[in-house]
Design brief:
Structural class: alpha/beta
Strand order of the largest sheet: 7-6-5-8-9-11-10
Number of strands: 11
Number of helices: 23
Shape: globular
Distance between the termini: 72 Å
Strand content: 5-15%
Helix content: 55-70%
Length: 723
């Protein structure tokens, strides 16, 4: 024990309370700031989950820089100098308050906005976030020098930090965001940051009083009596931090694209991620870790069988539970191994530095590498396999013994996959075989290499077969999601097979077109003539010859085929790739044949509509979807006020609200009542079996109730009041 330790009161509770309270507040502020600024930026970019993932990369990068600063400070300066320099940084950082977006910012519409998001975040919150990110490693390092009875293992403070993170994360969507406006949130956060600076200084004073009479060395960290950290240990820490970070972002992207694009769904994986740190650095860690190691391969076979091989049989909420539990077990194993192999406090800042670097690399991989390497969210299954390889025992595996069976299955399966012309006739057998392999994977639970390789083989063939079954003609991944064009076979009016073209965003169909000459310009799916939007154009047929029409959301362009020669149409679409695909007659013909002169405005619709002249539209059609969900910023009261400011006094707002998971009509009903508007709802279901005419829900809203009389009295639809 050093001199400082011997001079301290080892049983005092004051240092523990002071340091733990400071770390708790620091984490609380960090995880309030993250969703707060994510919410501010999300509406500027159409609500895509990639906005949150990009924000996470920024946060992880600043976290790494904060940990690097703490490591350099604690290894190059004595404790007195550390306190002095950090005090200067705290004082300087106050200049950046209150946190707010820079003035006159607008996202780019002609290129990927990732760089723009990171630049805006750095200008808005870079300095305060950097300071907050230094708190955890620096104060834990200071606590290890305090001479307290718990100073020998200060990692317990990391659990207090993550408890603050978890509380903030759960409080924000349910308590803070619904009850406190963004301007008040920014002000309160800035006040909390000021309090944090005072608490950090208070903790520094406690340390100063202990070390000042005795400190004579120039650098307080001496590790000559400890074994140095090997390169292999550092790489192990790096991998154990990299994979959970990548899994976190991969699962967030996957569930928002392929399961349900539900607002705030990203909270689920992030909550589990933080909870894992609390558990693995707690006093229960030694009892929990063996349970996690045993549960992961057992749950894996259920997870693979139902969430990948045959996902259609599950409701979305059950699929979400399967993915969430599999994710939690994977990160608990990785983080458990990370905590198990943590070094002595003398190497604490180096450990946290490498851990944060791995987290940052995981974010970089998902945000900057995966979208350009993969045309779908394949990084998620890749990291599922990687988490299995990181189970203890990989380096002691008998490589040939553990890998021969998975490699044999891969070779045989590939030959069948490439040569079998009638593979679709045996899909049930193939699916059963893959489920059997998933069951066999459990026998490799003590062999990380065999378990990882066999799981990789199963996922490879599962994803490949799903791709073949979907007959995908074109697929590309952009910042706004995965867009694909597929062929599908339906039965026509005479019960003959007919090939049709479909547009998908994630797993949700965003339009379809029949390719026969008689039907190639017929609007279909949610935009069919028998459906609600077709009824609107039919009922107002005598007066809409010269209407000025705005449509938010392009899809395959089916709405363009309601165009009349005297009308002026303007489409608002956030994703340039959607415009490119809809205009290309190789894929779809609606725009090319019905309205090639239509204006195209690329960018977020709400920002674009602000620039339009007031009272300029006769009809405004809201058809914006990110996968299956309407972006929430397009559903707010303020958004409806904007729409009606751009509509003429007798103008009509037609809102497409078809959704598998959310009752959007209830949100609109509240706004209609509060704004004293008139509205009708139709939950349309086709009376007869008409090819590609589907059930769909639409709401029409206007300021003048008389404008809706003809719809309500119409015999071709079932419109009714819903407010």
């Amino acid at each position: 024990m050093n001199q400082q330790a011997s001079s301290a009161n080892p049983s005092s509770a004051i240092p523990v309370i002071a340091f733990a309270g400071t770390l708790f507040l620091s984490a609380l502020l960090m995880f309030i700031l993250q969703p707060m600024f994510g919410k501010i930026l999300l509406p500027l970019l159409g609500g895509t989950p990639a906005v949150w993932n990009t924000c996470m990369v920024f946060y992880q990068t600043l976290l790494f820089l904060g940990y690097w600063y703490a490591h350099q400070l604690s290894t190059r300066l004595n404790t007195s100098r550390q306190i002095q320099l950090h005090t200067v940084l705290l004082i300087v950082s106050i200049i950046a308050l209150p946190v707010a977006l820079p003035d006159a910012i607008e996202p780019p519409t002609d290129h990927n906005p990732i760089g723009w998001i990171i630049t805006v975040l750095f200008r808005a919150i870079g300095v305060p976030f950097f300071v907050v990110s230094t708190t955890a490693p620096l104060l834990q390092k200071w606590f290890s020098r305090l001479g307290h009875q718990q100073s020998a293992d200060p990692y317990f403070l990391y659990a207090a930090s993550n408890a603050g993170s978890l509380l903030a994360l759960l409080s924000y969507p349910f308590l803070i965001e619904p009850n406190i406006g963004l301007s008040s949130q920014r002000l309160l956060w800035s006040m909390g940051y000021g309090l944090l600076c005072l608490m950090v200084l208070g903790s520094a004073v406690l340390l100063w009083r202990k070390i000042q009479p005795l400190e004579t060395e120039s650098i307080i960290d001496t590790t000559t009596d400890l074994e140095p950290i090997t390169r292999q240990q550092q790489l192990h820490w790096l991998a154990l931090a990299f994979v959970p970070s990548s899994l976190l972002l991969g699962l967030t992207q996957f569930i928002s694209t392929d399961i349900a694009s539900v607002p705030l769904l990203w909270i689920v994986p992030l909550t589990l991620y933080l909870l894992s740190f609390i558990l693995v650095f707690s006093t229960w860690a030694q009892r929990i870790h063996p349970l996690m190691l045993a549960a992961q391969p057992a749950w894996l076979l259920i997870f693979i069988a139902y969430s990948f091989i045959n996902p259609a049989v599950l409701p979305y909420w059950l699929d979400l539970i399967l993915h969430s539990i599999a994710f939690f077990l994977a990160i608990m194993v990785c983080h458990g191994e990370l905590a198990k192999h943590r070094p002595a406090p003398a190497h604490l800042t180096q450990f946290y530095l490498i851990m944060s670097f791995g987290g940052m690399l995981g974010g970089f991989f998902n945000t900057f590498v995966a979208p350009f390497v993969f045309n779908a969210v394949y990084e998620y299954p890749v990291m599922i396999v990687a988490s299995l390889l990181l189970r203890p025992g990989l380096l002691t595996s008998k490589w040939l013994k553990d890998s021969w069976f998975p490699l044999t299955v891969l070779i045989l399966g590939t030959s069948i996959y490439l040569s079998a012309d009638a593979i679709f006739d045996y899909l049930d057998i193939v699916g059963g075989g893959l489920i059997l392999l998933a069951g066999l994977s459990y026998t490799y639970r003590h062999q990380p290499l065999g378990l990882g390789l066999l799981t990789a083989v199963i996922l490879f063939f599962t994803i490949g077969l799903h791709s073949l079954a979907s007959t995908t003609l074109f697929q590309e991944r952009t910042f706004f999601g995965v867009l694909s064009v597929r062929n599908s076979v339906i039965m026509d009016e005479n019960q003959h097979p007919e090939t049709v073209r479909e547009l998908y965003h994630g797993t949700t169909k965003h339009g379809a077109e029949r390719l026969t000459a008689a039907h190639v310009t017929t609007p279909l799916t949610y935009y069919s003539k028998p459906g609600p939007i077709g009824q609107i154009f039919s009922e107002f047929d005598n007066e809409n010859q010269n209407w000025n029409i705005g449509a938010v959301g392009l899809g395959a362009g089916a709405l363009a085929c309601y165009t009349k020669p005297g009308q002026h149409w303007r489409f608002y679409e956030i994703d340039p790739l959607v415009v490119q695909v809809a205009k290309d007659p190789q894929w779809f013909n609606y725009l090319n044949r019905c309205n090639p002169q239509a204006d195209m405005v690329v960018g977020d619709a709400r920002l674009s509509l602000v620039k339009e002249a007031d009272a300029s539209f006769d009809l405004l059609i809201m058809d914006a979807f990110s996968s299956d969900a309407v972006p929430t910023h397009l559903l707010t009261r303020e958004a409806l006020e904007l729409y009606f400011s751009k509509l003429k006094p007798d103008g009509i707002l037609a809102f497409h609200i078809t959704n598998r998971h959310l009752a959007i009509k209830n949100v609109l009903a509240d706004h209609v009542n509060s704004l004293h508007l008139a509205a009708l709802l139709q939950e349309f279901k086709p009376a007869t079996e008409i090819p590609l005419v589907v059930a769909t829900d639409w709401v029409v809203i206007t300021k003048n109730p008389a404008r809706l009389d003809r719809l309500q009295m119409s015999r071709i639809g079932h419109w009714h009041a819903f407010n």
